Amino acid sequence: MVNGSYVKKIDLTVDWLREKVNESKSKGLVVGISGGIDSAVVAYLIKKAFPENSLGVILPIKSNPQDVEHANLLVHKCRIESMNINLTQTHELLFNEIKNTMSNDQLWNPTYQKISDANLRARLRMSTLYTIANNLGYMVVGTDNKAEVYTGYFTKYGDGGVDLLPIANLLKREVYEWAKVLGVPNEIINKAPSAGLWEGQTDELEMGTTYDYIDAYISGNEIPEKDRVIIDKLHISSEHKRSAIPTPPIF
């Protein structure tokens, strides 16, 4: 049975998206489709808001073939206009140029190579989305949910650099409920959440806790002390991502 409260909230969110586009004098909306549940839900939302002026962009960078398969499945089921831009070579060229130049100057730190690589992927994707959006007169829609916003589980100026965040008030479990109402394919609903930043990466393994515990904690419920410590640390260390860019006082 479809939950009526979810349907109402979905409809209100769709209305909100239309309002924001109208306010900005834009023409439509674009979202990056990863093959995961968050971008799937957002793709359905923007398609509902602007059936003729919504676009999903698949942006693989050395991506798991299953993620690309699921992204294409979502596009087919959602019937959203789409395009696929493979950024693998672009990423390799830029990353290697940066790494080699810094290594020649004896500045490259191998300890941070994995995270530097991963964040560059997120920022290349967002640069691509904004280039498309600028050309079409669209707004860029983000896919971060409430748990990700609270823990800072997003890349600053990557997937965090967007115009609108329609599911930022949804707990992760609510994202799943909306996905069921909207008709997101089960293949996407049933797989482990992953940002697809490196082979074998999953959100929960990287964070060191689970979305269930994060949802419970930010809803005011008790969770194991070990997980509370992890979530508090993630929240505090990522505060800069949620804050305006610091500027000095007027001297």
List keywords for this structure.
alpha/beta, 12 helices, four-stranded parallel beta sheet
Would you mind describing this structure in some detail?
It is a single chain. This protein is of the alpha/beta class and 251 residues long. 56% of the residues lie in helices and 7% in strands. It has twelve helices and four strands. It has a four-stranded parallel sheet with strand order 3-2-1-4, sandwiched between helices. Helix 3 links the parallel strand 2 and strand 3. Helix 1 packs across helix 2 and helix 2 packs across helix 7. The mean pLDDT is 95.
What's this model, at a glance?
The protein is an alpha/beta fold and 251 residues long. Helices cover 56% and strands 7% of the residues. Strand 1 (28-33), helix 2 and strand 2 form a beta-alpha-beta unit.
Distance between the termini: 61 Å
Q: Give the H and E element order.
A: HEHEHEHHEHHHHHHH
Number of strands: 4
As a percent range, the share of strand residues is 5-15%
Largest sheet: 4 strands, parallel
State the share of residues found in helices, binned by percent: 55-70%
SS content category? alpha/beta
Uncertain runs are none
User: What sort of overall outline do the alpha carbons produce when their principal axes are compared?
Assistant: globular
Give the integer mean of the pLDDT values: 95
Number of helices: 12
| Rg on CA atoms, Å | 19 Å
Task: Describe the strand arrangement of the main beta sheet, using strand numbers.
Answer: 3-2-1-4
